[in-house]
Design goal:
about 120 residues; about 25% strand; about 25% helix; 1 helix; globular; Gamma-B Crystallin, domain 1; alpha+beta; single chain
Length: about 120
């Protein structure tokens, strides 16, 4: 009887530990997914990059990771979001648009006539 009680107590302690750890894992996953759309200034995912986690209506104040201005300078993207992201050649989500499906990549905007045009993006 004592072994059964000890076993049940140990099982309860293990279950509590597992439950206590689960929310932390979920929280870190949602943080990692939040910044899920990345642009690069050069085709083939070369050069400077910038990752987005929300809409951006004006790239004028943005810089690539290499310090260069990112407005009208994007040439590749990786969309790790589960939804479509839309880029526009004008600020405020205006002008010609180019959308990238969720969970997809485009290594060269030139084949979509959108090289060096992105000035804003939304879809978050």
């Amino acid at each position: 009887m004592r072994k059964i009680a000890l076993s049940l107590g140990l099982a309860a302690a293990c279950a509590t530990s597992i439950v206590a750890m689960a929310p932390a894992a979920v929280a870190s996953e949602s943080v990692a997914q939040a910044a899920c759309f990345t642009l690069w200034d050069t085709h083939g995912y070369e050069g400077g990059s910038r990752t987005f986690s929300s809409n951006d209506s004006n790239f004028a104040d943005n810089n690539w990771s290499n310090g260069r201005a990112s407005n009208n300078a994007a040439n590749a993207a990786k969309n790790r979001c589960g939804f479509r992201v839309h880029m526009y050649d004008g600020t405020g989500y205006a002008g010609q648009a180019y959308s990238i499906q969720g969970n997809s990549n485009d290594s060269d905007f030139g084949n979509n006539a959108f090289s060096n045009k992105a000035s804003s993006l939304n879809g978050f």
